[in-house]
């Protein structure tokens, strides 16, 4: 180990009066952009006299109308109840990358994205307000692409490109810019808050560091970068070693500190867990190239999922062994996306999971991924990149063009 030192349709119901001769008449009226049905009461059109012998007929008609409306209203209520996501209006149209909530106040959260997007909510994500940093020039802030945010209680971290690292100790009331050394192997791409002044950071080169003093010092957790590991593997003379070449495009961490990294060409992936000196490259078990990967419920012990180009999706059949160099056993899931690539999958619980696809499409499964259904939400213009669940009642989908969906329990 070595140490590295560094100096964030409408109906309006009318009522018949027993003192005035009124008739409920259904007419068409262009009230909005679409034709909507409206019930109007026309005066001085005596159809019924409200005498005793006729009163029964009137109420029979009214009862029949109520009976006819009931299925429609019930269907509308059922549709509303079955809706799982609502689109939240936000004051930006940029690409959204990540969000997290202050653990000491689950109503208070932060959302980050491209062009300096930095939004705050204090009502669990129903509304968002743009914020700026006091220690960044406004023009300079627009150049940043904030990609990752993580909180532990009130302690939070943000990373972005060009390389920038921000830290807060008070839930985001104030942010401190932590210097990033130019000698850092790769750029920071993932950070996880672990405690007061404590965080774990991964770079685009596969370097992993931990700080316990707010970013003043960082301790390396991996002996060599991914490039070094791949170069060593290729030069080993082992048959097929040249397969493991290229850069990585994504790093994913589970709640216990175990990592996945995907090669830029999608031809292989790598794994690492605490205690190992270097990353282990692993071949994919399909002819299709890898699109994305992740953990079941953010926990390696529950399994892995892998999406492949063209809309393929598979799950591990057993708990993957990161200590073994053997390939993992995956089985295909029956999901039909029409060729759209699956960009992210996330679990609300072990039975309910959601998949985000290109073209702004969501798919849902309520049997642990055995069967899937295309979500019948309104068409989203753009792509959906990331799904995050914070608990059984809180979840969000992030996408391009400022698209933000909020889970409705």
Task: Walk me through the structure.
The chain is mainly β. The chain has helices spanning 52-82, 138-142, 226-234, and strands at residues 3-5, 22-29, 36-43, 85-87, 96-101, 109-113, 118-121, 129-130, 145-152, 155-161, 164-168, 176-178, 188-195, 198-203, 208-211, 217-220, 248-253, 259-263, 268-272, 280-283, 290-295, 304-308, 312-316, 330-332, 342-347, 353-357, 361-365, 373-374, 384-391, 394-399, 404-407. A five-stranded antiparallel sheet has the order 1-16-15-14-13, with no helix packed on it. A four-stranded antiparallel sheet has the order 4-31-30-29, with no helix packed on it. Residues 1-51 and 66-81 have low confidence and may be disordered.
Our Rg estimate from Cα atoms comes to 28 Å
Task: Write down how many β-strands occur, each being a DSSP E stretch of 2 or more residues.
Answer: 31
List low-confidence stretches: 1-51, 66-81
Return the average pLDDT rounded to an integer: 81
Helix content: 10-25%
Strand content: 35-45%
Largest sheet: 5 strands, antiparallel
Q: How many angstroms separate the termini?
A: 47 Å
Tally of separate helices: 3
Class computed from helices, strands and strand pairing: mainly beta
How are strands sequenced across the largest beta sheet?
Answer: 1-16-15-14-13
**Shape estimate:** globular
């Amino acid at each position: 180990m070595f140490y590295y030192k560094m100096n964030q349709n409408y109906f309006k119901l009318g009522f018949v009066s027993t003192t005035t001769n009124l008739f409920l008449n259904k007419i068409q009226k262009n009230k909005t952009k679409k034709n909507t049905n409206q019930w109007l009461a026309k005066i001085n059109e005596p159809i019924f006299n409200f005498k005793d012998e006729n009163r029964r007929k009137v109420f029979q008609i009214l009862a029949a109308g109520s009976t006819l409306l009931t299925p429609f209203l019930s269907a509308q209520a059922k549709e509303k109840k079955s809706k799982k996501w609502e689109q939240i209006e936000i004051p930006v149209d940029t690409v959204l990358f990540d969000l997290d909530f202050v653990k000491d106040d689950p109503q208070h959260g932060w959302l980050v994205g491209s062009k300096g997007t930095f939004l705050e909510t204090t009502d669990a994500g129903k509304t968002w307000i743009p914020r700026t940093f006091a220690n960044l020039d406004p023009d300079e802030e627009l150049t940043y692409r904030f990609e990752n945010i993580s909180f532990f209680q009130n302690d939070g971290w943000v990373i972005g490109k060009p390389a920038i690292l921000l830290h807060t100790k008070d839930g985001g009331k104030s942010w401190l810019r932590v210097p990033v050394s130019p000698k850092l192997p790769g750029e920071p791409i993932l950070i996880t808050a672990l405690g007061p002044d404590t965080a774990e950071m991964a770079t685009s080169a596969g370097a992993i560091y931990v700080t316990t003093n707010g970013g003043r010092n960082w301790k390396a957790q991996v002996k060599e970068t991914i490039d070094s590991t791949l170069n060593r593997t290729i030069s080993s003379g082992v048959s097929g070693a040249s397969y493991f070449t290229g850069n990585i495009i994504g790093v994913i961490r589970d709640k216990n500190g175990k990592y996945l990294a995907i090669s830029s060409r999608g031809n292989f992936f790598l794994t690492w867990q605490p205690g190992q000196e270097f990353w282990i490259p692993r071949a994919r078990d399909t002819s299709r190239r890898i699109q994305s990967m992740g953990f079941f419920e953010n926990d390696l012990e529950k399994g892995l999922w892998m999406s492949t180009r063209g809309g393929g999706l598979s799950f591990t059949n057993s708990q993957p062994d990161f200590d073994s160099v053997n390939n993992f056993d995956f089985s295909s899931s029956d999901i039909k996306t029409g060729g759209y690539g699956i960009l992210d999958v996330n679990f609300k619980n072990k039975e309910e999971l959601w998949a985000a696809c290109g073209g702004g499409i969501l798919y849902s499964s309520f049997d642990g991924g055995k069967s899937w259904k295309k979500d019948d939400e309104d068409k989203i213009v753009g792509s959906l990149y990331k799904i995050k669940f914070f608990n059984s009642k809180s979840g969000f989908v992030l996408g391009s063009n400022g698209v933000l969906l909020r889970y409705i329990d």
